[in-house]
Amino acid sequence: MNGVIMNDKPINIKVRIEGFSETKFIHVKLKEGSCLTDLLSQLIAIYGDEIEPYLYDSITGELAVYSVIINSKLYRLKDESYQELFDNDSVFFISPLGGG
Amino acid sequence: MKKYGTYAGKILRVNLSNGLITHEALSEELIKDYIGGNGFGTKFLFDEVPAKADPLGVLNKIFLFVGPAQGTSLPAIGSRAALFTKSPLNNRYLGTYFGGNFGSKLKYAGYDGIIIEGKSSKPVYVYIDNDNVEIKDAGQIWGLNTFEAQLKIQELLNEQDVSTVTIGKAGENQVKVSCTIAGVHAAGRGGSGAVFGSKNLKAITVKGSKDVTADNIEEIEKYSNELLERMKANPGTGKALPTYGTAAVVTVNNQLGMLGSYNWQEEVFEGAGNITGTYLRENNFIKSDACYGCPIACAKVNIVREGKYEGAMNVGPEYETLFSLGSNCGIDNVGAIIKGDRLCDELGLDTISSGAVISMAMECYEKGLLTLEDTDGIDLKFGNDEAMLSLLEDIAEKRGLGALLGQGTKRMGEIIGKGAEDYAIHVKGMEVPAHSARGVPGMAIGYATSNRGGTHQDGRPTAERAGAVDINKIEGKGYYTVDIQRMTTLSDCIIHCRMTEGILGLTAISEDHRKLLNLVTGITRNIDELIDVADRIYSLQRAFNIREGESRVDDALPKRFTTQPIPSGPAAGKYMSQENLDKLLDETYEKRGWDKKTGYPTKETLVRLGLEYVIEEIYK
Questions:
Q1: What is residue A9's predicted lDDT score, i.e. its pLDDT?
Q2: What is the mean pLDDT of residues B196-223?
Q3: CA distances to A10, A36, A80 from A33, in Å
Q4: Nearest by CB: A98 against B233, B434, B499
Q5: Residue A98 has what pLDDT?
Q6: In which domain, by residue range, is B127 found?
Q7: B427, B460, B481: which is the final residue of a domain?
Q8: Using only C-alpha atoms, what is the Rg of chain B?
Q9: Phi, psi for residue B463 in degrees, rounded to 5
Q10: Distance of residue A7 Cα from the nearest chain B Cα, in angstroms
Q11: Closest C-alpha to B126, from B201, B20, B210
C-alpha cells in the first residue's frame, strides 16, 4: 500500500518516469476515481525528494512536465490534469527535454 | 570602431588559390543588423557567393562564424561554432552547427569568423595560432579518417592544445551527404564536408590564448551562473539529458507513435525497446562527455559489450542516429548502430542523410525498384544491419550503389525513376530528420518553410512533443512556426545549443534571449527589434534561395506525409494534407510579409528590414 491508507477499493497504476524509474514501472495504488493530479500527489507522498527533481523545477517549484501518455494516449497536464485513472493504467511522463 | 560587447572585432580571410591571408574589421552594420553566427553567415553568403555558383566550384566559399557569446562562460553556448556555405546537397543556403571547443578557441585566437575562398592546388590545412596564420601542406593527413587526422595534426604541430574541424573520406570524395567533424562533434547537414574537399581543404586548426573581454564581464558571469543553476534545476536539462542524452527521445516518440520506421512507412517501431536511451544506459554506457563549459554533458560514450559488433565504441549515437541508422532502416541491433555511428564520424558522413538514403534504398529494393544486380548481390531488406554498415563505406568511397546513394534521396528518386521519387523522404533536397511531419503539425510547416530544407533546427518539435503546445491542433501552426523560426534564427546568432531551449525559450524570442544578447553585444534592444533582426536574416536566406530559383511550390513535404496517414499505433490516422499545408503556408507568409502567391518577401518587407539592395536581385 506504499504507506497510504485507503478505505475505498484501490486501483493499481503503473508509472514510468524516464531516469527515475528507467525500464521498470513504479507501481502506485490510488483510490478509485483518482485523476492525474492525485497521482502526482501520491508520487510525491511516496518518493518525496527522490522523485521531485524529475517532475518539478527545483528553483521555481513549478511542474516542469507538460504531458503524460496513458495507455498510448497523450494527455496535456495543463488541460487534462483531472483525467480519471483506471485500474491497470500505464502512465508515462514525458520529460521536457529539448535537443534531438 | 567602438568596441562592442564581447566581439573579437576581426574576421580572418584565407584565399586558397593565391595563398593570401588577410583580416578585416567587423563592421558596425554587421553587429547591429546581423548580431553574429547565423546572421554573419547569411549576410556574407548572400553578398559573396553569386547566384547559380557551383557549390563544389571555386566560387563557393566556406564561412565559419562564432558570435559574441562564444568564449564566455555562458553554459551550452560559449564553445559552439557554425559553418555556412552553399549546400552541394540541395544548392541552397546552408548553416550547420557544432559543439566541442572550436568556437571558444577561435574567439581566444582573436577572431569572430574565418572566410575560406578559392581552391588550393594540393591538399592543405589552415593553422591559426592567434595572429599567426598559415596554409600548411596536408599531404600526410589527406586520406586519414577524421579522428586520425585530428591526432596527426597535433603530432605535426607538436601541440595538444588545439581544436580542429576536419573532413574524412566522404568530404575528400565530395560526397553530397558528407559532413565536417570537430573533436567528436559533427556539423552534420547539407554536405559541408564536400565543400571542404572541393577546395582541397582537409582541416582548419586553431589555437588561441587571448582573453574575451567586455566592460560588463562580471554581469555576464553573474547571468551565466544563473543559467547554470536553472539548467540544473530543470528536469530536462538537469536530469533526463545528463542521464540519457538525446537518446531519451526514442522512447518518447515511440510512445507517441511518431518514431520514423521503415523509411517512414511506419511510425511505431517494434524493436524500439532495444535502441532507447535506457537500453544504452544499461548495456553500453561508459561515461558522459561535455562540450567546453557545458553542465549538461549530453554526449554519452557507448561501447558494444557482446555480439558480432563487440568492441565498437563511439561518443553517441544521438537520437537522430538511433532513428536514421536504426528504426528507419528497421534495425534494432544497437551494436550495429553504434558501429555505424562511429563509421559515419570517421568517414565524415551525416548520419541523418546517410541513414535516409539507405532506408530509401531498402524500400526501393523491397518494392522491386532496385535489384540484386543493382545492390551487387546485397539482400538489401529492412533490418539488414550488415548491409547498412557496408553501404556507409560505399557511400564515402562513391563505390557501387554507394555512388548513387551519396547523391541524396532527391537525386536517387530522379535516377532510379519508376515511382521511386515517392520514397524519397526529403524537403527541398535535404533528408528529413527524426521528427514526424504527420504527427507534429508545427514541425510539418517548419520543414516546408525551412530555408535549409529537411531540418529540425528552423521549425522545432519540442514544445508540441513535450506537451507545452497542443500537438493535435493544426490551425494557427503557421503563425506559431514563424515565432519558433524567429527564435531559432536568433538562437543561431547566439549559437546556443538547442538543449537549452527549455531554459531560454521554447516557443518564441524570450526575455532571456533579449537579456543575453544585450549583455554580450553591449547594444540595448527590445524584443520587437530582435524580431526584426531575425526576420532580416531569414528573409535574406530566403532571397539567397530565390536567386537559385526557389518559390512557394518548393515549400512542400514528401508525398508520403501529405497523402498517407500514419498507418498504425497511437498516432494512427494523422497526416498533413496538402490543403492544410497550403493554409499553414498562407499563415506563415502573412506573418512574415511574404507574397502568398510566390513566397517571395514583398518589396515592402525588404525595405522595412533594410534589405533594399535585395529587391533588384530577386525581382529582376
A1: 80
A2: 96
A3: 9, 10, 15
A4: B499
A5: 75
A6: 10-207
A7: B427
A8: 22
A9: -65, -40
A10: 34
A11: B201
d(CA A82, nearest CA chain B) in Å: 16
Determine the average pLDDT of the residues in B62-85: 96
Spatial separation of the C-alpha atoms in residues B189 and B112, rounded to whole Å = 22
Task: Looking at the structure, tell me whether residues B158 and B16 fall in a common domain.
Answer: yes
pTM assigned to the model: 0.97
Query: Is B456:B435 a contact under the CB 8 Å cutoff?
Result: yes
B449 and B428 Cβ atoms separated by less than 8 Å: no
Q: What is the ipTM of this complex?
A: 0.89
**Closest-CA residue to B354 (of B315, B307, B392):** B392
Q: How far apart are CA B197 and CA B246, in angstroms?
A: 30
pLDDT, position A25:
86
Band of residue B1 on the pLDDT scale cut at 50, 70, 90: low
B168 and B24 share a domain? Answer: yes
Task: Tell me the mean pLDDT in the region B84-93.
Answer: 98
Considering the domain architecture, whether residues B351 and B477 belong to the same structural domain is answered as no
Query: DSSP assignment of A78-98, as one string?
Result: HHHTT-B--TT-EEEEPP---
- Region A10-94: CATH code: 3.10.20.30
User: What count of other Cβ atoms lies within 10 Å of the Cβ of residue B44?
Assistant: 19
Q: DSSP assignment, residue B210?
A: P
User: Residue B558, preceding bond cis, omega within 30 degrees?
Assistant: no
Is the alpha carbon torsion for A87, A88, A89, A92 positive or negative? positive
- C-alpha span between B217 and B204 (Å, rounded): 29
Residue B315 and residue B175 share a domain: no
Q: Maximum Cα–Cα distance for chain B, whole Å?
A: 67
Give the count of domains, chain B: 3
DSSP B50: -
Report the distance separating Cα B251 and Cα B16, nearest Å.
47
* Mean pLDDT, chain B, whole residue set: 97
- As a whole number of angstroms, the distance between CA B350 and CA B186 comes to 8
Domain positions in chain A are 10-94
- Residue keyed to cell 513549478: A62
Q: What residues of chain B, 297 to 356, have a C-beta less than 8 Å from chain A?
A: 298, 318-320
What's the grid cell of residue B157? 604541430
Separation CA B277–CA A97 (nearest Å): 13
Mean pLDDT of B523-545: 98
> Does pLDDT of A1 surpass 70?
no
C-alpha span between B113 and B120 (Å, rounded): 20
Cell triple for A21: 524509474
Helix B334-347 to helix B385-397 angle (10° resolution) is 0
Helices (H), B82-200: 102-108, 146-157, 169-172, 192-198
Are B199 and B121 part of one and the same domain?
yes
Cβ-count burial of B502 within 10 angstroms (0-12 exposed, 13-18 middle, 19+ buried)? Answer: buried
Position B481 scores a pLDDT of 98
Choose among A31, A25, A59, A60: nearest CA to A45: A31
CATH number at residue B44: 3.60.9.10
How many Å apart are CA B589 and CA B603, to the nearest integer? Answer: 13
Among B377, B405, B427, identify where a domain stops: B427
Q: What is the mean pLDDT of residues B96-117?
A: 97
* CATH number for the domain harbouring residue B442: 1.10.599.10
* Nearest-by-Cβ selection for B246 from A18, A59, A99: A99
* Confidence grade of residue A7 (pLDDT, cut at 50, 70, 90): low
Rounded CA-CA distance B2/A79 in Å is 51
Query: Residue A69 and residue B570: Cβ atoms within 8 Å?
Result: yes
Given a cut of 90, whether residue A96 has pLDDT beyond it is: no
Q: Which of B239, B294, B324 to mutate to test the interface with A (most CBs of A within 10 A)?
A: B239
Chain B, residues 459-478, CB within 8 A of chain A, namely 460, 462, 465-468, 470-472
